[in-house]
Amino acid sequence: MSIDIVGITKNFGSFTALDQVSLSVPSGELVALLGPSGSGKTSLLRIIAGLETPDSGHVLFNGEEATNRQVQERKVGFVFQHYALFRHMTVYDNIAFGLTVKPKKIRPTKLDIRDKVFTLLKLIQLEQLADRYPAQLSGGQRQRVALARALAVEPQVLLLDEPFGALDAKVRLELRRWLRRLHDEIHVTSVFVTHDQEEALEVADRIVVMNQGRIEQQGTPSEVYDHPATPFVFDFLGNVNLFQGRVHEGKARMAGLELASPEFATAHNAPALGYVRSHDIEIERETLDLGALEAEVRYVLSVGPLVRVNLALVDGNGIEVDLARDVADRLRLSVGEKVFARPRKIRVFTEDYQI
Ligand SMILES: Nc1ncnc2c1ncn2[C@@H]1O[C@H](COP(=O)(O)OP(=O)(O)OP(=O)(O)O)[C@@H](O)[C@H]1O
User: Fold this and answer.
1) Distance 232 CA to ligand 1 centre (A)
2) What is the 18 CA–ligand 1 centroid distance (Å)?
3) Which atom of ligand 1 is nearest to the CA of 33?
4) pLDDT tens digits along 178-206
5) Which residues pair with residue 148 across a beta bridge?
6) Whose CA is nearest to atom 5 of ligand 1?
7) 151, 120 in Cβ contact below 8 A?
8) Domains (ranges, CATH) in the chain?
C-alpha cells in the first residue's frame, strides 16, 4: 500500500512539531525517517498510524483519503523500542494474539492460526522457542517476536519506531541486516524511525532526513550521503570538519585553502562554509603545492579499523582525520609532529548555492 503525506502540520500548544511535511512512500518501499531527537519523526509516524491527528494536511493510503480513519481501520503494524510483549504469554501466544482476538466471523481456524504462527516463527528464525516466555528471551529475540506479532495480522503498512534502540551495538547490527533481508522477502510498505545514520544508510531504500519538524532532504542512501543538499544533512550524516571562509569573484577562501569554481563567479565577498568529511583528508609529511594545510598532530587514537588523528591548524582550529589503519601504520605519526592535511573533497555552501 502506498502512503502519501500531504502538507501535514502538527502543533503541541505553541510548539510546531511538524511544519507542512509532504512525503510519498510507494508501495513496498522501506523508508527511514532519520533525524535528531525532537525533529518530529515519531510524531509523523504516529500520524501515519492514526494515533495522533494532524492540525492540517492529509494522509492518503493508496491514494484514498485516510486522515480521519481509526487506527483499527488502517491495517498498520507497529514495532516500538519498548513494545513489551505480553509477559504471561508464550512466544507462540504472543504472535497468535492479534489473530485470536479477531471477531469470530473473520477469525481464522485454530489450525490456520497455527500454520501462520509457525510460518512467522520460521521467518524470524525462532522456531525452537515457541514455548518460551518473553523473560526467557534475549532483547534481540524479543524484538523479532514483536515484529512477528505485528506481521501476524498481515498489515498493509509496518511502522517501526527505533525498534533496535534498546539493544547493544552488535545485536543492533545483526538485526538491521536481518530486517533488510526480511523486507526483501515480504515487501510490506515500511516506515522506520531512527536517529542512527548508519542504521538508516544500511537498511533503507530511501532516507528522509528531518530537522525541526521539516524534511531537509530525501533520497536514496547514496544520494543523501554523497550529495547532501544542506549543511545540516552533511553534518548529520558522518563525521565532518567545518571551515569558515568567504567566496569572492570565482574563488572560495577558507582556512588557507583556495578553491576556484565558475559557480562562485557572481559572489562578492559572501560568507561560505566548507565541509570536509574526516575520511576525505589525507595527511602528508611534505607538500609541493598550496592544496594542503599546515598542521600539528594533537593526538592519535585507534578506533577499531580506523585511526582518528586530531590536528591543530595554524589558525588554532582543530580538525579530525580518519585514516585507514594501514595508512596510519605507514605514516607512524607522533604527537607534536608538523604535517600537512590535504582535503580531497570540500563541499562549499553559501547562502545562495552549493557546489
Ligand atoms: N504529546 C506531546 N505534547 C507536547 N509536545 C510533544 C508531544 N509529542 C511530541 N512533542 C514534542 O514534539 C517534538 C517532536 O517530537 P517527536 O517525538 O516527534 O520527535 P522525534 O524526532 O521522534 O524525537 P526522539 O528521537 O527523541 O523520539 C519534540 O520537541 C517533543 O517534545
Assistant:
1) 19
2) 10
3) 21
4) 889 889 988 999 999 999 999 999 999 99
5) none
6) 12
7) yes
8) 3-236 (3.40.50.300), 240-350 (2.40.50.100)
